[in-house]
Structures are given as C-alpha cells and as structure tokens.
Write the structure tokens for this entry.
Amino acid sequence: MAAFRLRTSQSTSALVDRPLPWLYAYREDAQSTRLDGPVFRPFVPVSLAHANRSTLLLSGLIDTGADSILASNLLADQLEIDLDDHDGEATHAVGGRVIKARYKTIGLRLHPSDADEARYIHWEAQVGFIEGWHSDGLVLLGSVGFLDRFTVTASRFAQAVAVEGRETFDDRFGVVGLPE
Amino acid sequence: MKPIRTDFRGYEGQYVAVDARTGDVVIADKDPRVVFEKAKGRNHVVVHGRVPLADEPIYVGLG
C-alpha cells in the first residue's frame, strides 16, 4: 500500500487549562430554516488577531466543503489590516454568489464552548477577507487553515462537534494511503 | 448533546450577538458596527451574524 502524508509544523499555541478534545453542541443558525424547522450547524467561537489587536468573539462555521477561511472585510478594518498589502486574491462562489477574497496571514483563536475570551488556542493562517460578506459576524472555517490544524469530528446524530489535535486522526485510523 | 437553541424571532434584518452559554440574543442592531461596539468587553458573547428576512432564500451550504 502506498502511503504518504505531507506534514507541516504545528505552529499552534494555547492559553488554556483544558486539554483537547473540546466539545461543542450544535447551534441554531439564524441564516436558515428547513421546512419551517430550525437548522443546527457546527459553530465554534473564534476570534481573529493581528499585531496587538483582536476581534470580538465570532461565530466560526466549520465547513468541510470550503477550501479556505473566509470572513468579512469589516473585520479587517477592525484589525487595521491594509488589504491592499495582501498575500493574494481569488474569486470564489459562496452560497450561490461570486465573491472576491483578498488573503492575509493573521492569527486565529479557537475558544472553548462557553466562549471564554481569555482561553484559546492560537495559530496563524491565511484568511480571505470579502467585501459585502452576507453576515459580518460569520467566519467560514474551511480546509486550509482550520481542518489542516485540527481533527474535527462532526455528528448530526450526536448534535455535537469534537475538535482534537490534528495527529489524532492518524493515531486513530493510521495513515490513509491510496487504494490498491 | 442537546443543540443550543436561539429564538431569532423579532430580530429579522438585524445583526445579533448571543450569550454562548444560553443561546439568548443579548445585542441586536441593523448596523453590525453597533453590535461590535456593544459587544466589547462582554465575555461569553459571540457575534452571530445577520438574521435573514422571512422572504430571503435559504442557504443550503456556504462552501
């Protein structure tokens, strides 16, 4: 069996006294209803940080279908980030809309389920800031920058999501290779 | 686990912030900047986003 895994440095740091896994109950989404019933989604509290500034606590939506982390450019304003000095631009289709994201490498903080501002895990990642984002408090947590930093287990049956260290997947299942 | 419910009725078209421990809406305003300002210094309060109007389309996914 051929097996490979690209490993990069895990440059996370923590200001926490509670080890992973962190568990989060699903939360009701203001954005959606389905057949007049509530929609529950895997939201986790996050904040963004740059230089000596940080945002308020924001709703991070874990989205395995998204390739990157996306957020409102209003948050870049709060962090006093000059988006003209960006790492790169890309056009995406999100929620049926075409949007332009300007990416910048900044700090992200994952907070525990009670959204205690003082407790968090910090890491650096590229965030795509979007003008006219449909919901300014929402941060989309996609593959690059979030799902490559943590092992995330989401269960609609349990109505909860677990966030663990990223090595946990390999520890549990072994390194997954290509099918023979 | 039980999901955390939030009663968004009455906040349509507004940005809201909720208490993460209870799911209760604690701040609401049509201007997100006002919500950000009022949420400053309030621990456990998460800015959730905008509550859509009743006739807005339903997102089935964002990614």
Summary: Chain B touches chain A through 37 residues (CB under 8 Å). The mean pLDDT of chain B is 89. Residues 32-39 of chain B form the longest helix (8 residues). Chain B has one domain: 1-53.
